[in-house]
Amino acid sequence: MHASHNAAAPRRMPAWVAGALLAAVITGLVAYRPDVAWPFDMVDFSEFLPLLEQNDSFMSRLSALNAYYEQHGRLNVLQYAGTVARWDVFGTWSPGWQVTRMVVMLGVILCCGMLLRRLGATRLGAVAGAACFLVAPPAASAWVRLTMAEAIGTLVMLLLTWRALGFRDRPSWKGEVAIQAGGAIVLLLLKEMFAPLLLLPMAAALATQAGGAWRFARPDRRHVMLLGTVAVAGVVVALPIALVFAQAPRSGYVSLLGAQWIPPEAVAALWAAAVLPFRFIPERMSIPWLLAMLSWLTIGAIGWGTAFRNPGRKTHHVFWLALAFGWPLLGIVIYTPWPAFASFYGVPYLIGPAVFIGFGLSFVQRHAAHGTLLATVLAALPGIVAATDAQEYASRRHASQVTAHRLIDWVTDSVRVDSIFVASTESHRLVMAGPGPTLGRHAAATHRPWPPARDFPCAPGAAPAFAPGAVIWATWACREVRGPAQVVVRYGFMDWSRWRPGRDSVIARVEVSPNGA
What we know:
By secondary structure, the chain is an alpha/beta fold. The protein has helices at 2-8, 15-32, 42-53, 58-70, 77-90, 94-118, 123-130, 132-135, 137-144, 150-164, 174-190, 199-207, 221-247, 264-274, 287-307, 314-333, 351-367, 371-414, 435-445; strands at residues 420-424, 453-457, 470-474, 487-495, 500-512.
């Protein structure tokens, strides 16, 4: 009776998992402050808010968002549904949106850590690898940007991979085929660019045996059924996505695809940055950054070097190392037809550095002298640097959002002009994508009058001589802002170059032509 009772009892979360999750919660709260009410990001919400406010039901709002993005060649229905659902629950209360994103990211961290552990990483290795989804630069971008699909897409990918482990040895496998096909549909309806993410669960299904051993064998009937069903599900979903893309007017976002490819040298630089859990090129050179880089190299030299001295597992380790460096490269390459690579695009591909760090530290811990102590030090140094980088990024991003919000208030209350010109560091193929029109949409979305706006280059002497008008210079666009500022928003960060807390600010300066009021 006693044994039967124990067998039926629910399994408790292991203490090390609970402790790691608690540490992630504390770090997330300190670095990203999801509990604080911040203004919504003007880039996305300037487009969403009017559509959400002008419709009064879930389906009408979803239909409005879908119709709007069909004009840009996009059909990400599940992403739009998530946006509408959060609007119905939270409205304009931003902490609700932010805490929801935090919960999703914590789910990603938990799934990654448990997956690494199941595949053979030590507890320390699993925790350190999963921490990439907490503090690495793409993760920091995901924690603070509320309307992108990468966070939930990564969670779906990891859950599908978990389910796929041991697929070859399950007596009942037809239900698993249905789960994988359903997951493929979910990923594609979240974002069409998530199609490559299916490679990870499919590889897990083809290559893993019970117990997590990763080795390939000849596919059997169940694998043919799995690959065929997932392929059919993908094609069925891809057809309407392709139709919407083909029918979209060339004036929308669709026109950017293939118009300006990311050059090879930029791909190489992005890849170098993607495999590190901290900034590849720091804003301020410091001893901690150098120690973090040395730690990362040591993980490769001692950890992976030791692993490859085991001839019986060399093929196994080659596969993991190829995944560690090849998976982030895949994430960059699929975006090469797009003009720029946003940091949060790389969130699903953080599994690469997670594998490198997680297994590298596991090898150190198992085979090096004083392995646990050495592995702990090697994990801590990059983690501390990455965490402070993430906090600085989030603080600056929040300060930029507050600056934009206050700038609109100041111009609305203090300036009477016919036009606005906003400095920008880059030229936009679509006029609507520049900071000037985006500020205008954000002002309109929040019911504040704003004159027609356009952009101009940040270069000295490039300010337009149009009148009447106002010229806006801001540090989020032009670092060389000088003179009195109408809006100043300060933020704090850890300045490792001087070993003390630092302060910086995001500022905006407005120049009004003589003919303006």
